[in-house]
Amino acid sequence: MQRLLIFCYILLNTLLVSCGEKARENQHLSETEAGVPATENPESNPKKTILFFGTSLTAGLGVDIEEAYPALIQHKIDSLQLPYTVVNAGLSGETTASGKSRLHWVLNQPVDVFVLELGANDGLRGVPLQETRNNLQTIIDEVKAKNENVTILIAGMELPPNMGAEYTREFRSIFPELAEKNNLKLIPFLLEGVGGVTELNQPDGIHPTAEGQKVIAKNVWEVLEPVLGISGER
To answer: Which of 33, 37, 180, 208 is 20 to 30 Å from 27 at the Cα level?
Structure first.
């Protein structure tokens, strides 16, 4: 009996070690899929964190992860030798409700700049506008509660006209109104210059191509640039 217990203990220990090694190997993949940033020792990493929290537009559905706009922002930051690390916490199919539910996971590390790109999937599904507004406000409140010095950017979104004129108009107003109410930086329309442009979108007409992602990166950079304390660099 004693030998059996010893064997079980050794087997369990071996499994734990091997699982730990496998987890470390897959850490980047699992965190990308779940939208959970890797935590690092702040003393060994003096860089500040810019976290992009959004939908498939942020995740880069249909393009390589290095072609998604958060990665392009990182390349721009690196070229300017700025002390910031970008975390892509985009998740395909994300709504404001599901984003609110997983928010605590992405706030497991300090976040200095939080880019909020949610709401498009709500609009396409016809979610009641007040629900979308309330969920976004809750996310904003929780991010601020985690770090009162955080800078939040909110990405404005628009819907196709087939959703109805009144719904479309009220949906568009959510983002600037939340930005004004909460003193956020507003990206007027994330897909400016991309939405409705056939050659910049994949066959589904919704998700940008690699070239479309470059345009989105420019739209974001125009608002993000002064937040990082620089100007005049494009």
So the answer is: 208
